[in-house]
From TrEMBL, chains A, B:
Keywords: ATP-binding, Kinase, Nucleotide-binding, Transferase. Pfam families: PfkB (PF00294). It comes from the Bacteria. Belongs to the carbohydrate kinase PfkB family. This is 1-phosphofructokinase family hexose kinase. NCBIfam families: 1-PFK (TIGR03168). PANTHER family: 1-PHOSPHOFRUCTOKINASE, 1-PHOSPHOFRUCTOKINASE-RELATED. Residues 11-263 form the Carbohydrate kinase PfkB domain.
Amino acid sequence: MIVTVTLNAALDVTYRVDRLCAGKTHRVRDVHSRPGGKGVNVADVLRQLGEPVTTTGFAGPRLLAELPHFVPIAAESRHTIAVVDAEAVTMLNEPGPPISAAEWAALEAEFDRLAATASVVVLSGSLPGLPADAYARLIRRSPAPVILDAEGEPLRAGIAAGPALIKPNIDELAGLLGRTPTLPHDCHALNVPTAVTLGPDGAVLSTSDGTWSARPPRPVRGNPTGAGDAFTAALAIGLARNRPWPETLADAVALSAAAVAAPIAGAFDAPTYREFTDAVTVEEN
Amino acid sequence: MIVTVTLNAALDVTYRVDRLCAGKTHRVRDVHSRPGGKGVNVADVLRQLGEPVTTTGFAGPRLLAELPHFVPIAAESRHTIAVVDAEAVTMLNEPGPPISAAEWAALEAEFDRLAATASVVVLSGSLPGLPADAYARLIRRSPAPVILDAEGEPLRAGIAAGPALIKPNIDELAGLLGRTPTLPHDCHALNVPTAVTLGPDGAVLSTSDGTWSARPPRPVRGNPTGAGDAFTAALAIGLARNRPWPETLADAVALSAAAVAAPIAGAFDAPTYREFTDAVTVEEN
């Protein structure tokens, strides 16, 4: 059983408009909303693959109706708004809700219960109103290996707690280092297994066993939102099954390309996934 | 007692961002929300003036918590999002909810109850999922004189039902005529008392008693959202008290300028209102 944790879950709202123009009034043609957040997306991808998965995190009163097994909090969970026109997607991300000490204690108890039988735990996304060491505390409590997909201070503090794998994208790695990364050199220096996603250029994976680069066979047009979460889902399966690292990396690059080909975050395009599964090239560095 | 009706009430959400840029991801610095819709704003202005007022309309489950005396509907009321940066305000207006026949019957019953003791009824704003003659039907039921602030087909159908006064802005009047209006000539042709707002240039009022133009003494910088609703509030008071038309028009222009000087819709700046009350110039055409 893979467990995903989404501390800053959101109601992801999509607005379709004719053309977003700052300073103007827009009639929203179509409103679509779904529970979101990176860990929720990872779980959706795992379910689509038929993989047993359980999710937890915090949910405010409204979001709890959609995520009834999440830990309830008094404040409302944030909304994210994706304004979609023919040209681009514009994101508006609300700040996360405050979390009380009692709410955090309830999350820790639920985490302990789920992690006790987990093969892999995935911690994903930003933090709501919590100290930056929140992920580090969960990593230290976890009897199962942890994949951490975070950025900034929560990532830095989390690395010190010894996760099994971190998954920054290249911008997040640059933010952590305070400069443009040199790959794979800078991954070694972090002293933790690291998968760095490079958008359409694939990914680099650096572990104590070796370093590999993987590239998709061709570029994929579509919606990159959620591609990183599909990548993480594949990492979680590889770790849960103890698959060889290069195989896991190739699968993650194929699945994340297939997620770009799907219109919404948390889904992937099955034909693209099948096509890419044997076509991703992996090189040992 | 003035009664305002807001069939398409909304939760008006304001997002403050550093700078809105299409295609980018924005961290929302500050989220503020309040019940809104034109009739709600009109009532807020009337309350600030100490005028007795009752409001009704439709409210979905979430909005009902904020407008508990509104007629409940099954679908959620729409949200409007105002994205505010240092340069401009960008509006995203969701479409309105569907209204069932039973919900419409409940609104008619509540309308009859309130209109029976009303001095003036104000019908404001867009329609949710209702036929375009919804305002016309309420106007025909109303024992009290009705001010109609609508546009497009609901305005056209409403005029045929004989309101006491309509209040289009110049763009809404152009939409109704299908061409650029010639004032005051085109008001006469509508055969209904008509107050046309002209933004910073004041307003024109045309009735069977005469036609007047009113201008504010100086331009006012600020937030024009809700200025039309303050204008309507002053019209309602004038009609309720049977004040002479030119006096009512001057008051409406002063109050709407004072609303521009206030940061949020439904409020006005009292010092500006005092300053403008005797300073608006009115000419008979």
